[in-house]
Automatic annotation (TrEMBL):
One family name in Pfam for this protein: HTH_31
Listed InterPro entries: Cro/C1-type_HTH, Lambda_DNA-bd_dom_sf, MLTR_LBD
Organism: Actinoallomurus vinaceus
Protein name from the UniProt record: Helix-turn-helix transcriptional regulator
Domain HTH cro/C1-type per the UniProt entry, residue ranges: 35-82
Domain of life of the native organism: Bacteria
Length: 282
């Protein structure tokens, strides 16, 4: 991703979703562009039209904090979008950044997974599965082909037809996954492995291309998710994402069964399985 061009793309997609009426301007049927015009956004943000055009064209670098705050206010950006705007506006010095190894989670995490009674796994921001406990294996491995080695949840989601049966809320999961990948790409523009994954998904999935073009960003922290298991039926879980100290690109995902799913994934049933499967680098 070219940082300044990506900044322009992000501003254009955010500008397109702001209605003139919501910004206190007159709308009308004769408008030729969705959302605000460049000159309208510039006026509302208190900057010149010429400078804003340079931002969208990738010709203006490192806008001030005051400009970023003004744009964020007019565009109605949430906290994640504001941070993404700042990341794009303050790109790291261009360099070849080696992809961080997607190897196993550290031993302490593997022990923690083994002791957890609910399904849990460790993934990175490329959605590589690094480790998972037996309860999580029971959910994901039948759908992912029966092997934890080399599983990437984003690749499975967009490139495996089975994923549409597996994820009950497929559209929502897909949109959230794209939003998180865009955040990761903004933070790590030199990650060759992440860039290759995005190119692969872009080339192999119409749904990914459409969602990526929308420019949305997001970070999942918690929620409810349902899966259609081939032998266990529909399973519903509340999930929590925990960022891991010491590695900002890894997170622990824990899934607490809801309703009838508790009978399938109760603490006693999980404890009987014991152990943990630890995957190598995809």
């Amino acid at each position: 991703m070219e940082d300044h061009r990506e900044l322009g793309r992000f501003l254009r997609t955010r500008r397109a979703r702001v209605t003139p009426e919501s910004a206190g301007l007159r709308g009308g049927s004769r408008r030729r562009v969705p959302g605000l015009r460049r000159e309208e956004l510039a006026q509302l943000a208190g900057i010149s039209v010429e400078y804003y055009q340079r931002l969208e064209q990738g010709r203006a670098t490192r806008p001030s904090e005051e400009v970023l705050n003004a744009l964020a206010e007019v565009l109605g950006l949430d906290a994640v979008e504001r941070e993404h705007l700042r990341v794009l506006a303050r790109p790291v010095r261009r360099r070849t950044e080696q992809a961080e190894p997607a190897g196993p989670a550290r031993p302490e995490l593997r022990r923690l997974l083994r002791l957890m009674s609910v399904p849990a796994l460790v993934i990175n921001d490329r959605f590589d599965v690094l480790a998972l406990n037996p309860a999580a294996e029971r959910i994901f491995l039948p759908a992912a082909g029966g092997s934890a080695s080399g599983v990437n949840l984003a690749r499975f989601l967009f490139l495996s037809p089975e994923s549409r049966d597996f994820y009950v809320e497929w559209d929502q999961v897909a949109a959230e996954t794209v939003g998180q990948l865009r955040v990761a790409a903004g933070r790590h523009p030199g990650d060759a492995e992440l860039s290759a994954l995005i190119r692969e998904l872009h080339g192999g999935s119409d749904a990914f291309r459409r969602s990526w073009a929308g420019g949305d960003v997001g970070v999942r922290t918690h929620g409810v998710k349902s899966f259609r298991h081939p032998s266990l039926g529909t399973l519903t879980f509340g999930y929590e994402n925990f960022d891991l100290a010491g590695d900002s690109r890894q997170r622990l995902v824990a899934l607490a069964p809801v309703g009838s799913s508790e009978a399938v994934f109760g603490a006693a049933a999980v404890a009987r399985n014991g152990g943990i499967r630890h995957t190598g680098a995809p």
